[in-house]
Amino acid sequence: MTEAAGCSWHEHAVAARKALDLLGYPVRMEECLPGEPGGASCGMSDQMHALAYYAALRALADHHLGHVTDEPTLDALADIYHEAACNLQGTCRA
Questions:
Q1: From CA 48, how far away is CA 20, in angstroms rounded?
Q2: Cα dist. 16→12, 48, 90 in Å?
Q3: Which of 1, 22, 24, 56 has most Cβ atoms within 10 angstroms of its Cβ?
Q4: Which pLDDT tens digit goes with each residue over 31-58?
Q5: Helical pair 9-22 and 46-65, crossing angle rounded to 10 deg
C-alpha cells in the first residue's frame, strides 16, 4: 500500500487518531508519532501507526455495524464495502 489521497503516512496517522478520539476512543499515547515529542520512545513508523489506527477504526465500525439487522441497510453496507475494496484494489468498473 502506498500513500493514498495525496496525504503522507503521517497525515493519515494523525487523521485516523483524531477520528478515534472523536468516536470516543482516544489514543492514550498522543505524542508517539515520529517527530512528536514522545515519538522516539515508540519506535513505530508513521505508516505502522496509520495502519494500526485504521485497523482499530475498522474493528470499531464492524462491531457497531454488526448490530444492524434490517435487510435494506445490510445490502447498502455490503455495496459500500464492495465499492471501497474495489477502489483500494483499483478494480472498480465505471
A1: 16
A2: 6, 12, 22
A3: 56
A4: 788 888 766 668 889 999 999 999 999 8
A5: 30
Q: What is the pTM of this model?
A: 0.68
pLDDT at 65 > cutoff 70? yes
Residue 74 lies in a domain: no
Which are the contacts of 60, defined by CB distance < 8 A and separation ≥ 6?
20, 23, 25
The x, y and z cell numbers of residue 33, run together, are 508519532
pLDDT over 60 (residue 72): yes
Query: Is residue 16 in a domain?
Result: yes
Sequence-ordered alpha helix ranges (H) in 1-94: 9-22, 39-42, 46-65, 71-89
